[in-house]
TrEMBL record, chain A:
<keyword id="KW-0647">Proteasome</keyword>
<keyword id="KW-0539">Nucleus</keyword>
<comment type="similarity">
    <text>Belongs to the peptidase T1A family.</text>
</comment>
<dbReference type="Pfam" id="PF00227">
    <property type="entry name" value="Proteasome"/>
</dbReference>
<dbReference type="GO" id="GO:0005634">
    <property type="term" value="C:nucleus"/>
</dbReference>
<dbReference type="InterPro" id="IPR000426">
    <property type="entry name" value="Proteasome_asu_N"/>
</dbReference>
<dbReference type="GO" id="GO:0019773">
    <property type="term" value="C:proteasome core complex, alpha-subunit complex"/>
</dbReference>
<dbReference type="InterPro" id="IPR023332">
    <property type="entry name" value="Proteasome_alpha-type"/>
</dbReference>
<dbReference type="GO" id="GO:0005829">
    <property type="term" value="C:cytosol"/>
</dbReference>
Automatic annotation (TrEMBL), chain B:
<dbReference type="GO" id="GO:0005737">
    <property type="term" value="C:cytoplasm"/>
</dbReference>
<protein>
    <recommendedName>
        <fullName>Proteasome subunit beta</fullName>
    </recommendedName>
</protein>
<keyword id="KW-0647">Proteasome</keyword>
<comment type="function">
    <text>The proteasome is a multicatalytic proteinase complex which is characterized by its ability to cleave peptides with Arg, Phe, Tyr, Leu, and Glu adjacent to the leaving group at neutral or slightly basic pH. The proteasome has an ATP-dependent proteolytic activity. This subunit is involved in antigen processing to generate class I binding peptides.</text>
</comment>
<comment type="function">
    <text>Component of the proteasome, a multicatalytic proteinase complex which is characterized by its ability to cleave peptides with Arg, Phe, Tyr, Leu, and Glu adjacent to the leaving group at neutral or slightly basic pH. The proteasome has an ATP-dependent proteolytic activity.</text>
</comment>
<keyword id="KW-0645">Protease</keyword>
<dbReference type="InterPro" id="IPR029055">
    <property type="entry name" value="Ntn_hydrolases_N"/>
</dbReference>
<comment type="similarity">
    <text>Belongs to the peptidase T1B family.</text>
</comment>
<comment type="subunit">
    <text>Component of the proteasome complex.</text>
</comment>
């Protein structure tokens, strides 16, 4: 549903006659140009998966991370302008750190996502600045409150989810996520499914190679957000590749 | 003789201190706080019925000692901060949050303030907890005592405290400790205020002087 907002789209401080702020919508388009990131909440934790497109063979593997640690128990996966996302991760870290300093315990994820969303929203009010061109997914695990997952988009709104996707293949990813019974799965099972979804939505034709970034936080990590260990990640990628081949085979049979 | 008649009464020039006995004890399922009620300015008793157990939130109280004004002001500020905090996080505050807020003020202004607050309460994550915040320190303890009267009962509480007492046993323990301290400390006295906090709510009680237990009193 794209329309030209000629004249009403020059600054975030202007509404269009049909009540839209075009600058914010353009910011969301910037997110849609980036590669996909997904986050899924299960029975005992949260798993993040990011499709990191490799634009040059000269890139060092594992650099340009798109999953950040905000405090020990919170992870953040981003899509959109990476520089904007890094700046927001610093904002989130400061919020979490100040909360711990003032109140003596881990920041509840809902509160953190509301605070960062408020910050993002502030940049949609003025003409002197531009909105942030990134969306991000926050996840955490706490013994008493369980796993939590929140997503913040450039308009400054935050929602809680059981599963969400951002980036170019978000529709396809959402369809795949909806097929899962995530409330009954454990993190170990979910890691494999997340890898599979990223492999499924990756477009082999338009984008060449990609690197899968996988992280989790849950009972299995005792509440700390960490990158998935190498051996589990390799197992998950193997499962993903094998599932893709199976589907390819079954397509051929139907012919 | 004439100099004595013209001398100013002590309570005009002496700082108002809650020379005090305060105590907070955890039990299986909550906490009990207790305090005496004497406020002194030098040798005068300025208030003999002051309640030194101040609410910070529905299920979190603090016990005041040291300078009366300093302690009360800290308690009021933290009460306000916890109100805002609990609305922002849409949940009851944790006892450790209340204690950290008190500690932050006590430490930042430790040169200007002279108050020791014991923070105690119940929250759904850790149950009953007691925190001591003497001059900006923060420790979690099974029980804590404070104030000038506390020195006289250190031995008593160390000998008689047991973990996981019942609610009634803990209330008795607190009242006994207060009575013994009030009996020996000149700056503590009056009535005993006792507050019990558990998952079902908060109960405030005032025990008058003649209802306090009797100890060896020849």
């Amino acid at each position: 549903m794209s329309s030209i907002g000629t004249g009403y789209d020059l600054s975030a401080s202007t509404f269009s006659p049909d009540g839209r702020v075009f600058q914010v919508e353009y910011a969301m388009k910037a997110v849609e140009n980036s590669s996909t990131a997904i986050g899924i909440r299960c029975k005992d934790g949260v798993v993040f998966g990011v499709e990191k497109l490799v634009l040059s063979k000269l890139y060092e593997a594992g650099s340009n991370k798109r999953i950040f640690n905000i405090d020990r128990h919170v992870g953040m996966a981003v899509a959109g302008l990476l520089a904007d996302a890094r700046s927001l991760s610093e904002v989130a870290r400061e919020e979490a750190s100040n909360f711990r300093s003032n109140y003596g315990h881990d920041i509840p994820l809902k509160h953190l996502s509301e605070r960062v969303a408020m910050y993002v929203h502030a940049y949609t009010l003025y003409s002197a600045v531009r909105p942030f061109g990134c969306s991000f997914i926050l996840g955490s695990y706490d013994e008493d409150d369980g796993p939590q997952l929140y997503m913040v988009d450039p308009s400054g709104i935050s929602y809680g989810y059981w599963g969400c996707a951002i980036g170019k293949a978000k529709q396809a990813a959402k369809t795949e996520i909806e097929k899962l019974q995530m409330k009954e799965m454990t993190c170990r099972e979910l890691v494999k499914e997340v890898a599979k979804i990223i492999y499924i939505v990756h477009d082999e034709v338009k984008d060449k190679t990609f690197e899968l970034e996988l992280s989790w936080v849950g009972e299995v990590t005792k509440g700390r957000h960490e990158l998935v260990p190498k051996d589990i990640k390799e197992e998950a990628e193997k499962y993903a590749k094998e599932s893709l081949e199976e589907e390819d085979d079954s397509d051929e049979d139907n012919m | 003789m004439s100099e004595e008649l013209l001398a100013e009464p002590g309570w005009l020039s002496e700082e108002v201190k809650t020379g005090t006995t305060i105590i907070a004890v955890t039990f299986d399922g909550g906490v009990v706080l207790g305090s005496d009620s004497r406020v002194s300015a030098g040798e005068s008793v300025v208030n003999r019925v002051m309640n030194k157990l101040s609410p910070l939130h529905d299920k979190i109280y603090c016990a005041l000692s040291g300078s009366a004004a300093d302690a009360q002001t800290i308690a009021e500020i933290v009460n306000y901060q916890l109100d805002v905090h609990s609305i922002e996080v849409e949940d009851d505050p944790l006892v450790c949050s209340a204690a950290t807020l008190v500690k932050n003020i006590s430490y930042k202004y430790k040169e200007e303030l002279s108050a020791h607050l014991i923070v105690a309460g119940w929250d759904r994550k850790e149950g009953g907890q007691v925190y001591a915040t003497l001059s900006g320190l923060l420790t979690k303890q099974p029980f804590a005592i404070g104030g000038s009267g506390s020195f006289y009962i250190n031995g008593f509480v160390d000998a008689e405290f047991r973990k996981n007492m019942t609610k009634t046993e803990t209330q008795e323990f607190v009242v006994n400790a207060l009575t013994l301290a009030m009996g020996r400390d000149g700056s503590s006295g009056g009535v005993a205020y006792v507050v019990t906090i558990d998952k079902d709510g908060t109960e405030e009680k005032c025990i008058l002087g003649n209802e306090l237990p009797k100890f060896f009193d020849q």
